[in-house]
Amino acid sequence: MSALLDEQRGLLEQLSHPRRVQRAGRTFWCGQWYGQEVVLVLTKIGKVAAATTTTTLIEAFGVDRIVFTGVAGGVGAGVNVGDLVVADAFIQHDMDSSPLFARYEIPLYGCSTLACDVALSTILLEATHAALTGTTAHFFNEKNLVSPHIHQGLIASGDQFVASAEVASQLLDGLQAAGFSPLAVEMEGAAIAQVCRDYKVPFAAVRTISDRADAHAHVDFSAFVQQVASPCALSIMSRFLQML
Ligand code: ADE
């Protein structure tokens, strides 16, 4: 899964015997890649769209694991443009049912964070390391994104494109006051993680940092998704599939 076409461009060409299925206003591409049965789909943007896509993927296609590749805004210290973040858990930065429930707690779930599948995330982390030392490295050098780092940690999702340093630091301050230190922000991951938890489907996610969630975010984001996001996704996912 990815949110946008630019995050997934090039992956479709890898599928052998691709078959197109329309459901819930989305196009699902089914096929084989490195001997694995694969379904590619775009979630669209935001938590509800991502939840609908995930539910459809599980209910109508019977997938037994889900991986997301895409971009995110870096908010953690030292999480810079071009770095990669493999999620170990997700939180919704816009979840607030206080005073009924603690700030950030998902009502009736008894938790604020949703963990990713450890085994699947370990493979994804390995695939990301392999991708960075392979073809993507040349690609990053060309774009002057020298020595990108790979991080693993918490990602915060919400229905907001964060495009101001002030908003980003408010988000971060609130989360840190509650004991959470996210590395990046995006708009889908926590929703996918929640649906996957409901259905007990293993989930892993990797996000390339396209911007620093500040006033330049929209400019950095647009250029990045067009130029970097797809080659990254392609490189990581082809290695990932061979490691399964
Ligand atoms: N995805 C990529 N950059 C983002 C940002 N700054 N805010 C939310 N989602 C993003």
TrEMBL record:
CDD domains recorded: MTAN
Gene3D superfamilies xref list: Nucleoside phosphorylase domain
Pathways involved: Amino-acid biosynthesis; L-methionine biosynthesis via salvage pathway; S-methyl-5-thio-alpha-D-ribose 1-phosphate from S-methyl-5'-thioadenosine (hydrolase route): step 1/2
Protein name (Swiss-Prot/TrEMBL): adenosylhomocysteine nucleosidase
Pfam families in UniProt: PNP_UDP_1
EC id: 3.2.2.9
Organism of derivation: Rhodoferax lithotrophicus
SUPFAM superfamilies found in the cross-reference section: Purine and uridine phosphorylases
Coiled coil feature spans: none
Residue span(s) of domain Nucleoside phosphorylase: 16-241
Origin organism lineage: Bacteria, Pseudomonadati, Pseudomonadota, Betaproteobacteria, Burkholderiales
Keyword annotations from UniProtKB, A to Z: Amino-acid biosynthesis, Hydrolase, Methionine biosynthesis
Lineage: superkingdom: Bacteria
